[in-house]
Amino acid sequence: MASCSSKAASSLFKRTLALSPPRGGGCGRGGGPGSSSATSLGSGRLRSGGSRLLQPPSALPPRFLATQPLSPPVLFLQDSLSDSLRTCYKYLNQTSRSFAAVIQALDGELRNAVCIFYLVLRALDTVEDDMTINLETKVPMLENFHSYLYQPDWKFMESKEKHRRVLEDFPTISLEFRNLAKVYQDVIAEICHKMGLGMAEFLEKKVDSKREWDRYCHYVAGLVGIGLSRLFSASKLEDPVIGQDTELANSMGLFLQKTNIIRDYLEDQCEDREFWPTEVWSKYVKKLSDLAKPENIDKAVQCMNELITNTLHHVPDVLVYLSRLKNQSVFNFCAIPQVMAIATLAACYNNKQVFRGVVKIRKGQAVTLMMDATNMEAVKAIMYQYMEEIYQKIPSTDPSSSRTQQIIASVRSLSVPSGTLISRVHYSPIYLSCVMLLVALSWQYMSTVSKATEEYVHTGEN
Q1: What is the pTM of this model?
Q2: Is 216 a catalytic residue?
Q3: Which has the closest alpha carbon to 356: 418, 428, 294?
Q4: Does domain 10-23+47-56+78-444 have CATH number 2.10.220.10?
Q5: Which of 162, 227, 283, 308 could be stapled to 191 by a disulfide with Cβ–Cβ 3.0 to 4.6 Å?
Q6: 3-state secondary structure of 57
Q7: 54 pairs with which residues across the strands?
Q8: Annotated catalytic residue: which of 97, 273, 324, 331?
Q9: Catalytic residue, candidates 99, 148, 216, 386
Q10: Where is this region: Disordered (predicted)?
């Protein structure tokens, strides 16, 4: 079994800000848990084509979308951009169709800062993902990647990864990085440095304890939350406390990362990856893969319920963080992944299907969440609704039942202010919700086209 090679580090931005639907329900093409791995680690723990950030749901596009591809909606005039910045947005659209639109809905100069932040981390992630790079080369690259931001000519031409273009044309990205205000540069460079060190640390390291689970998730998701929060504050769209309270920002990332790790147990097993902490699963089985065996299904569900209970402890921090946000575009950017995550946890809790196939929220349910999560009162109602759903499913015989009930009770009693949201460009909440819906439809259309193209190429090769 492969170690926790920060392949899910490849999730970084991807996993952190979007929860994509899992790929298929077994190992390989239609295989079950006993099938051989569909892909080797060479394609990455969290491959670019199957990221685990809360991506828009796979709702079927209306008929008119079948005739003409939709690009993610652009809420600003690209004609006013420099050639290099326009190229960066092109790479953004190419590497993350769904996330691109969410970034482009952000207000003011924050939009460009987050775009460059994403591309820098995507480039770092591409290095980490590329299993054709030997460790002697990869480790120093990861540890020193932040320094390449200040080297105008640095690029890497030997990657075999799908998104290698961000490395081959890194001079364009680093140029726009250096064009950002110094306050943004400092944040991006520091987070890049810390994340690179964390990736290098976990290349050949397993997650044994719950403390190490938190540490791993901090590197691949918490740091993203911290970096984004500091960018929000630096832009003046949010108060300084948003960037200063790193504990809350870290919890935002950990809540998403842990949700994906729990939900994707079977997929990770099929691809020879382990992210569940040994401290927890070893109480139920001898090997993590044993949880997928039919005779262990009751123990498997109890193990999962314990991890879900652990993850629910981040909900109070999530609610407090969101309640502090002032800007509408930033609120939507942050809130939608969080409500999708709690809905996913509710679907997984005490559900044997996690160990048999795919568990995901319904398409209509996902779209409704995206449309509704535009203010604090609505987000609190959504969180409480799914916490109550979990509460109703707690088995009295579950070893973690008392702890699960306790955290849900603490969330119920939490007093969180509603806050007042504003938008610098006067986009209404319903407008931004419609944008998110359009993103979802566009993303599904492009995914369908991409899949059809891959099948066509595969057929041609045969």
Answers
A1: 0.79
A2: yes
A3: 294
A4: no
A5: 227
A6: coil
A7: 19
A8: 273
A9: 216
A10: 20-52
8 closest CA partner among 263, 268, 342: 268
Neighbours of 241 (CB within 10 A): 12
CA atoms of 98 and 444, how far apart (whole Å): 9
Give the span between the Cα atoms of 173 and 251, in whole angstroms.
Answer: 29
pLDDT in tens, 358-386: 898 888 898 899 899 999 999 999 999 99
125-168 pLDDT per residue, tens: 999 889 899 999 999 999 999 999 999 999 999 999 999 999 99
- The residue count of the chain comes to 462
Helix (H, G, I), strand (E, B) or coil at 422: strand
Domain residue ranges in the chain: 10-23+47-56+78-444
Residue appearing with tokens 């600003």: 76
Instruction: Please enumerate in sequence order all residues whose Cβ is within 8 A of that of 67, keeping only pairs 6 or more positions apart, or say none.
Output: none
Residues 215-260: pLDDT tens digits?
Answer: 999 999 999 999 999 999 999 999 999 999 999 999 999 999 999 9
The single residue of 255, 275, 331, 333 carrying the catalytic annotation is 333
Distance of CA 118 to the CA centre of its chain: 12
Category of 427 on φ-ψ map: left (φ > 0), alpha (ψ -120 to 50) or beta = beta
